[in-house]
User: Fold these one by one.
Assistant:
Number 1:
Amino acid sequence: MIDRLPTVKKLMRHLQQVPFLASKNMYRVTSYFLQLDDERIEQFCRALKEAKARVVLCQACFVWQEQNEQCSFCFDKSRDSSIICVVETWHELLVIERTEAFRGLYHVLGGVISPLEGVGPKDLKIEELVARVTSGVVELVFAMNQTPEGEATVAFIARKLHGKTVKVSCLAKGIPIGSNLEFVDRLTVGKALADRKLF
Ligand SMILES: [Zn+2]
């Protein structure tokens, strides 16, 4: 049936490349787009293009920011620049922000070291993090997902920090092993942050 609809097939091929979009939902998502009126489709495409053109990474903390705007974290004078929370991705940053328990700066690594998935230290913002650790930085709090890769990444970075006087801490246990911070409730993450342990 789909073979007789080449344009639908083409749309689905693009949708299939969207990560986190379950393949079982593919037909529903395709139908949703086909039913949108022209104006909504225009708005959708415009929003996508605008976001792509105007959203960039802060070159210090690697958090998304609007182009030509100052980073809302790095330039916020009310935040404590002596403590940096290191996260894997932007999602974990949002989780930490939701706890309202952290008022320092952030550093987004862009993932974890994972030889199986072909991700090495050079693919992450590790050198940039080490370079940020100057005399004004007292503590790095690693808020990683509780996975072996997350732990190995912290160990790798801790070795790189050798010779620098900075405290390295991790979220307290209490976050289930193997879990993604995104799916842990706000209070548990806030508590794990408050009870963080030295690495
Ligand atoms: Zn920044």
Number 2:
Amino acid sequence: MLGEAGIFVAFEENSRQITENAATFGWDLPALEKEKLFFLDARMSPDMVMSGGFDLNGMLASIVSKAEEIGATRVVFDSIDVLLTLLDDPVAKRRELYRIRDWLSETGLTGIMTLRASNDTKYIEDYGFMQFMADCVIVLNHSLVDHVSLRGARIAKYRGSQFSENEFPMIIGPRGIEIAKMDLSEPDYEVFTERVSTGVERLDAMLNGGYLRGSSILITGAPGTAKSSLAGTFIEAACKRAEKALYVSFDESANEIIRNMTSINIHLLPYVRSGILRMYSARTESRSAEEHLINIRKVIEEQQPGCMVVDPLSAMVKAGGHITALGVAQRLIHLAKSKGMTLLCTSLLEFRGEPFSEATEIRISTVADTWINLSYIAKGGERNRALSIVKSRGTRHSNQVREMILSDEGITLADVYTAGGEVLMGTLRWEREKAERRAEEQRQMDAERKRIELELADSEINARIQSLKRELEANRTELKRLSVDEAAYERDETQRLADLQGLRRAD
Ligand SMILES: Nc1ncnc2c1ncn2[C@@H]1O[C@H](COP(=O)(O)OP(=O)(O)OP(=O)(O)O)[C@@H](O)[C@H]1O
Ligand SMILES: [Mg+2]
């Protein structure tokens, strides 16, 4: 990788065996052997050693000339203990090891000696001093947890350099030996106030607009409570915004997930085809959680998603136990936060009588910013799904339990009814809603009837007023006419009297 040449001195295996072993990890040593790598088969027969003059001088001299020939800067003495077991005398063993050390400092080569570690007294007597002799001591550890192989590397000593004393998970794969990075710095992430949709309108409202961008979300629930479905809507919503997304699934293939989601109107295939969405699925038991994380990290680097799902994160427990799973979960969350990614993980809760047991085992719930729990409520001969937000940091969220309804149209949330302290869902809720709707319809009908009656009475009164007005008008007209007639009559009478007096010449 660094382009430096090296010599591999093998005391236990021949070069063919080493090449073959390396090939099982996908490493092509023969390609390197042409110019950068030289194998020295240093296996010795006991007779040779016993015959007396055994020392490494001859071999070291041949390594120097080979190193000069290929320009090697590094040399590995693999399984040096195999060679030294042939020497009975601890003093002779020491002499040979110091010989190598002195030779290294003379030649300026960087040397690695590997030997098996053991706690038995004989071993410590023979090789314990090496801890003091070497400049750097790395202790490798290999264990099995739940039948899953876990490797770790720990630096026990490193002269003239600072180092972390913790054991770090290590994996061996096609990309070489990888040590899980542990960022021991204080968490300091960019924080966002923007909300990203959950993909379910009503859940957005319950969360005051959705999940906070860059936050981590945990969805827990028993099998089949629709954890993946909620993860699916979240991812689909991201794709609809043309935001790059990644869906990591364990033990369910991408095709299965895409098909299953279609049943609830979530369509991921077009986004997979366009590259907006990357589906990555893995078999849990095939690798340790650390290896899974390394692979996921690689996919993240390739896809650069803004939103990501790990479904279910609890599968990690099967890949090396709780402590490893927790470490992986924490580092995954850290990775997501440092990249400003919104990460949604699902976690399977097994029925154990006590709620949230599995989640507390994995303890990711404490690191997650939002925790949504899905559960079943069985009543009235039905099993219905309930959704509740257990917590959501920095969010004024609803504390109400909602019924989650899956249908061909998608996911909807409905209010649950409480009657006499009992939660009603499904058909019982539907019946309650129907009864309430009926009562409302009845109330509306009664009100309508009353309104019509009053309007009728109103118009009747109005009609009566109009008719009385008309009568009043007629009366007034009649009255007017009468007074006009009376005045005319008066005038006529006065005239007639005047005429009469005129005729009689009366005064
Ligand atoms: N069209 C549909 N209408 C109603 N319900 C549906 C429909 N399609 C699927 N379902 C229900 O959704 C469930 C699947 O939900 P989902 O896969 O999201 O659950 P899960 O919690 O992820 O399950 P698991 O624990 O197995 O991973 C199915 O078991 C089925 O009951
Ligand atoms: Mg699922």
Number 3:
Amino acid sequence: MKKFSNWALLAVAFGAVAFTSCSKDDDSPAPTPSIYERLGGTTMVADPDNPGQMIEQGRLSYRKVVNTTVGLIVADVQANASGNLGAHFAPILSEVGAGNTTNLAILVDNLTDFFSFNTGGTNAVNTYTGLDMVTAHNPSLNPRMGTTSTNADYTKFVGYVGAAAQQNGVAANTELYTDIVAVLESLRDPIVQ
Ligand code: HEM
């Protein structure tokens, strides 16, 4: 009888373990937060560029990355006067060279919307209303696109966005960085035409 009880106990214990591990298997893993959330999400913070205004941290993170990217592209164009990035951005660069930054500000805003909107930013302020990526990067449909992008130009561009992300605190060896680069790579086909 004593022996039977031991087996019974063992069976109950095994059942408990099996049940526990079974219920563990049924727990679906917590979904990975969106890139927007991981960049700070909807937490409201003071907008460093607009005193007295607040901004979502996720949008602010993207705006910083976009602004740094613009700086890296301008530096590239200046260092390689005959290089290829300058040819694509010829219209906007000539405006900025003449002291007119209106369209640059619109582009920064559109790019910030585009990235925020497509990676989990749901606030209406993030809604992207610009051209789709095929139209925006086809010079015959968008006169602001100087020439079509080659694969090499695209790789260079993505490298600058990656460098800008790193300069704004996204370390290169993190899952977040890899996820951002994957989003950029997913746009290569529509943009390189
Ligand atoms: C991750 C890759 C890229 C993304 C997400 C992106 C996104 C955008 C967006 C959202 C716009 C604004 C469209 C509008 O105003 O309606 C734009 C415009 C433009 N893009 Fe891209 N782009 C990318 C790569 C490139 C590359 C590789 C080039 C050239 C080498 C390029 C050249 C341009 C130019 C010249 C414009 C027009 C700028 C202006 O308004 O003066 N883009 N892009």
